[in-house]
Amino acid sequence: MATTLEARRPGSRLKWRNTMLGWSFILPNFLGFAVLTLVPVIALFYIAFTNWNAFGTADWVGLANFQRMVGDKSFLVALSNTVYYTVFHIPLTLGLSLALALLLNRKMRGVAFFRTAAFFPYVTSIVAIAVVWNMLFSPESGPINQFLTMVGVSNPPGWTTSADWSMPAVILVGTWREMGYYMLLFLAGLQTIPPELYEAARVDGASAWQRFRNITVPCLRPTTFFITVMLTIGSFKVFDLILVMTNGGPGQSTLVLSQYIYTKGFVENQLGYASSVSIVLFLICISITVVQFLVNKRSEA
Amino acid sequence: MKRSIVTGLGIAAALSLALAGCSSDADAESAPETTPSGPVTVTLAGWSLATTPEFQTLADAFHAANPDITVEAKEYDATNYDTQMTADLAAGTAPDIYVQKNLKNFFTYQNGAQLMDLSDVADTLDKSLSGLDAYEVEGATYAIPYRQDSWYLYYNRDLFDAAGMEYPDGSWTWDDYATNADEMTAALAAAGSPALGTYQHTWQSPVQGFALAQTPDADLLSGDFSYLAPYYESRIALQDSGAQASYGTATTNSLTYQAQFGTQKAAMMPMGSWYVATLIAQQASGDSETFNWGIAPAPQLDSSTVKNPVTFGDPTGLGINPAIDDDKAAAAKAFLAYVGSEDAALALAKIGITPAYASDVVTEAYFGLKGVPTDDLSRFAFSTHDTKPENPVSKYTTGIQNILNDAHSIIMSGSSTVEDALAEAESRAENEVLNQ
């Protein structure tokens, strides 16, 4: 017994040491995460079932907040606008960033410049983007509508000042802003595809389209999956772009869930109700992500 | 391994230092609080102290009269003031005295028991103090107003002269205003000026504030918004006729009202009284062009109210954080009694603020300020008006104003008719706010 204990000790001590070492590396980040994210998120699940208004006591109201949500037309408008944004923003950004990546994945003069240029919007301040695009979209004096009038469009859209066109305008800017970032991810994915595959395909007489369909797309699948997940989450919680470009307007035409949560919580001080809407947003995001993972797993098998 | 131990020790040392630092700070802060007599310091929340001198002015003037009490201004961010204040109050770190920036949030603070009952202070004050009754809830007063802004009609005398038009005479209704704006635009165009007749900023206030204040029996909390319809129709007409920059142009180009009026892009502009001080400062600094201007009473619904023009504006007041130490509460109350007095009003008037306390002496002080237009109509507009609050104090106000803000953007952008938008707002008010 004694000998075995003696023999095991150094090993277990090493294990303990390694564990502590690992913890000490994680600790600084985890502390920040725990204090600023984890605890508030856990608190959210309690607050969502109360009528807390920032001051005083939070009374337990059970499912009342969720019942209210079902009959809340503004919530439904925000939900459908969020879905509207997501449904168009994801495929557009995915397609355009892939196209850009393919375009910039060849050897040509100035490729570094174009790659950087495509990435610029992503690192530009969102407020600056909103101001400039709003000017471009200006219904009477904006360059976009002046161009449209010039090429013969007699009734150009009102863009951010029209309830029907504000969402397309915001989607356009959102796509423009983010495609550079995802292009970079696609580029990284493209570089990992072994050139031999293309050579072999060429020898077999495969056309460019066939090479794209049968080599590029399958080899990029992990990248595409990652980007789709990121895009989905990002689209559902879109907030800053909308806030600075249209502030949800005109009317409620670009009101999205995150903004609705912000308004209810921090403008109207209904933190309980805002928390329950956050939970719904959280559930939507997580269930779609889970579905995506399952689909990805199945097609991998 | 050695390295990790050293790092660990370093972290532990840093932590203990930080903790020691915290505790010594706390000691230093609590020390004067326990001293029973002698000078007292109370803290006062304000925003953008460098460009908003009113807080320091009040603090300095009060300290001069009461050398034992020091009022120390604590800076907050102007745009996020209420969010930051809510967080600080909830955390127990808010200053002793804090500003009620608008009446919408006053309800939240009062209802959340974050304001001390100041009825005893209010009893010592002049009952005519403008805005005092806005802070009264169930017979008790919870804040003391120090400034009371009101909306006027600003006009550019030089542009009126260039167009050969008569200045506003103080008898205008909104119809007169619209007619003049249209004529002005045409006359200015004929005179070769690119300026427009008027400018209406993108906020909901310049339409809805006037409509609520001037329409008899209009009630924000009734959920019946039909009183807004005539005001919207006349503004839409002005926008369609080209007498003012369209809402779309103003929002997409982020037009500022200071630039529109200050760089002579518009001959008239309905705006709050705070702009007087801004315009004077900007003309001095060169941010605005130099031209002659004046203020006229806001246009009225009909001519029956021109003798005592009806306008709107929320008071700005100070309240006391109930978490204040007992020995400081008396000092804080003394300060609040001061801010509602004529002395404070004089100090504020001298820096171009419209004080809540009105008297002839205050008016004289205000018009003694360099750059303030001194004609009779400007004096009349400053001293004579019936200012109604834009935000009645109620738990429903913020929710309803948000709904009406949506209605405003959808109407002014031309995305919906006035009728449809107001009907939608009424149904939303009923189903989302008034039933809560």
Automatic annotation (TrEMBL), chain A:
The protein's name in its UniProt record: Sugar ABC transporter permease
Subcellular location, record wording: Cell membrane
Membrane topology: Multi-pass membrane protein
Source taxonomy: Bacteria, Bacillati, Actinomycetota, Actinomycetes, Micrococcales
BP term (GO), one: transmembrane transport
Entry-linked Pfam families: BPD_transp_1
PANTHER family xref list: ABC TRANSPORTER PERMEASE PROTEIN (PTHR30193), INNER MEMBRANE ABC TRANSPORTER PERMEASE PROTEIN YCJO (PTHR30193:SF37)
Top-rank taxon, per record: Bacteria
Keyword Manganese: no
GO cellular component: plasma membrane
Keyword annotations of the record: Cell membrane, Membrane, Transmembrane, Transmembrane helix, Transport
Record's keyword annotation contains Cell membrane: yes
Similarity field: Belongs to the binding-protein-dependent transport system permease family.
Domain ABC transmembrane type-1, chain residue ranges per copy: 79-292
Segments crossing the lipid bilayer: 21-49, 83-104, 116-136, 179-198, 219-239, 273-295
UniProtKB/TrEMBL annotation, chain B:
Residue intervals passing through the bilayer: none
Listed InterPro entries: Bact_solute-bd_prot1 (IPR050490), SBP (IPR006059)
Alphabetically ordered keywords of this record: Signal
Signal peptide interval: 1-28
Gene3D superfamilies attached to this UniProt entry: Periplasmic binding protein-like II
Protein name listed in UniProt: Extracellular solute-binding protein
Organism: Pengzhenrongella frigida
